[in-house]
Amino acid sequence: MDIKVLTARFTPVAPLLRAAFLMALILAAPLAAEARSGLERAVAATLIVLGDGDRPLGSAVLLEDGLVLSVVDVVGGRAEVTLRDGEGRQGRARVVARDAGRGLVLLRIEGAGFGLAGLPLGPVTLPVGHEVFAVGAPLGMDVMLTRGIIAAAARQPDPTIPVQAVQHDALLNEGVAGGPLVDGEGRLIGLNRKSPEGALAGVGWAIAAGDLARLVPLMAAGKLRDVPDLGLTLRRVTPAIADALGIAPVGLLVDSVAPRSRAGQAGLMAGDVLLGYEDETLATVAMLAMLIDRREGDEVRLNLRRGQADLTVTLDLAPVGNRLGALAVSSAGVGRIASYTFASLGVVLEDAGRVGHVNYHSPAYVAGLLPGDSIIALNGAPVDRATLEALTITGPILLLVARGGNTLHVLVDPWADVPRAAMQSRANLLDAGTHLF
To answer: Quick one: how far is CA 88 from the chain centroid?
Structure first.
């Protein structure tokens, strides 16, 4: 049997492939250079925040107009800090606005600055799965970046705080808080918060760029409204709660109302079900926070159900006294608040010196003073409610309190640095039962 060998002649394709590959490189080079320069710009715009003795505190980001943005977890209660760039140059910066509720601090560099190009603010939104980079200075070392993806759509980590945050999985080492979250082009996607601990370790949060673009100009102009302390503890009306009360599964159930708080003065009571805010139906606690933040006036109407009756109350949201931890900004510069009272610290006292309510963002709460504590001594001397309410606080005070059958001391210092964990202890709530407004 004859065996025939079949052969085939192939046209050489290697030269064609090489040509196509080279053409792709030529076309992609400008895009790669643009992306590379964008990330390099983001790294250059990331600054290291230094405290006394050049102790590293965390990171910050330089914006286009020469302002610097960071978070309360990093700057704390300081009026000034030192900033250092990636080239080792240092400069002083003063705080021009601080918002403890939203956790933002705005600074301005003294003198000519570093001569760097800052990052622009803009409502940049990326889809889930998009690649992002967290930029910062871990433990005060050189600025570096870590890579991750957008893990979930932006939402409110704390339902009582009207700020959207981007959730991502880029590694956030200690010291990266306050630095930018950027995309591959170096665009600002968000401002990194301190990485949570416990069950949510490894999940990063960054205040969304859209909120930064809205809030920073208001902070710079001194027009940003505080997140008001309502004195309310609320929970969403779930189907189970609705069945128990015999109502529709909508609205927010009031768990408690602090005495002499805004909610108390409006006439709200435990057991009320908040159904509406002006003409908006209330579905979640987070929705109420956002509606309050976007209000135009200082009085709003709340529609509620009390027993079988439908009522409307007016809630006064006008600013009261100095903002906690705020700095007075004038042509003369930044001034330190000289004194506080328990009322201006957000502490409401009841009979016999019992603490009825403490504003969550108050230095007294951060120090450890809790509702239900009974203050029995001030700086080592017995004290009563009248003395406490008339007290002018000009320095740290030591309180002896009774709590749960025991006594303990609480040192309240409104001028101390805010501990890093204090402002983050509720910063990553997923579905907590109750929410303190």
So the answer is: 29
Spatial separation of the C-alpha atoms in residues 54 and 62, rounded to whole Å: 19
Sign for the CA dihedral angle at 86, 88, 94, 95 comes to positive
Query: How far is Cα 317 from Cα 133, in angstroms, rounded to an integer?
Result: 39
| Cα distance between residue 187 and residue 126, in whole Å | 11
Answer whether residue 329 shows pLDDT above 50.
no
Q: Where are the alpha helices (DSSP H) in 239-348?
A: 239-245, 262-266, 285-293
Instruction: Yes or no: say if 205 and 427 are a contact pair by the CB < 8 Å rule.
Output: yes
User: What confidence score (pLDDT) does residue 51 get?
Assistant: 86
Residue 105 pLDDT? 94
pTM beyond 0.85: the answer is no
Distance CA 393, CA 21 (A): 72
User: What are the chain's domains?
Assistant: 33-111+119-224 (2.40.10.120), 232-320 (2.30.42.10), 330-420 (2.30.42.10)
| Kind and range of the H or E run holding 309 | strand 309-316
196: pLDDT strictly greater than 70:
no
- The whole-angstrom separation of Cα 251 and Cα 230 is 17
Instruction: Kindly state the helix (H) or strand (E) to which residue 98 belongs, with its residue range.
Output: strand 90-99
